[in-house]
Backbone:
């Protein structure tokens, strides 16, 4: 059972539809108790970092998320959900995140490229991982973001993309994964990533 956390940040139904399409058992969770029997957890989200983190706290999800991660449940952050995994963000001031992966969220600083990055971009794999199984190196994924997570430890970066500068597109620390792009909007490669995540055995 994959729990999709609904904390009032963005449309989560595309993600649910992508899981349903592949026959992956899932449910939308709006109460902390809904995480207790989940075998896998996905934290999606769009928009700005600070309001997203505030919504996560207001819905009472922060402590249960930490508890389930500590229990070894596979956890995937998507887009803003990935950024919230890190220590802090410089978006609209300095704001604290979940601190599950060391690093901070910073803005693209290109003087020539349009920010936000919206559209398809290639991702280069840095090392094999169960989340990436069967997905070709330099596959295209769909991005919508102005900020990206700058990991403090390069060993936590599974995949990189470039938008005027290299940035982490897929990260992992233990049983925690993050994808800066939207797998649910990334056609076959994104669907395969969601299947791979569902197939990861909890610790």
Residues:
């Amino acid at each position: 059972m994959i729990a999709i956390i609904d904390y009032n940040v963005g449309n989560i139904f595309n993600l649910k539809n992508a899981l349903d399409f592949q026959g992956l058992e899932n449910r939308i969770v709006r109460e902390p108790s809904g995480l207790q029997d989940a075998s896998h957890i996905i934290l999606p989200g769009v928009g700005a970092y600070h309001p997203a983190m505030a919504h996560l706290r207001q819905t009472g999800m922060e402590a249960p998320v930490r508890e389930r991660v500590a229990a070894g449940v596979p956890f995937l952050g998507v887009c803003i959900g990935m950024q919230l995994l890190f220590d802090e963000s410089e978006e609209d001031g300095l704001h604290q995140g979940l601190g599950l992966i060391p690093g901070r969220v910073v803005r693209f600083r290109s003087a020539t490229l349009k920010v936000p990055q919206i559209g398809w971009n290639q991702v280069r794999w840095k090392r094999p991982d169960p989340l990436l199984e069967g997905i070709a190196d330099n596959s295209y994924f769909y991005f919508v973001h102005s900020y990206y997570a700058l990991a403090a430890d390069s060993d936590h970066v599974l995949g990189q993309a470039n938008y005027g500068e290299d940035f982490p597109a897929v990260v992992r620390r233990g049983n925690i994964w993050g994808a800066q792009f939207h797998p649910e909007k990334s056609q076959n490669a994104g669907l395969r990533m969601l299947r791979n995540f569902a197939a990861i055995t909890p610790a």
User: Anything to note?
Assistant: The CA atoms of residues 36 and 68 lie 7 Å apart. The longest strand covers residues 117-125.
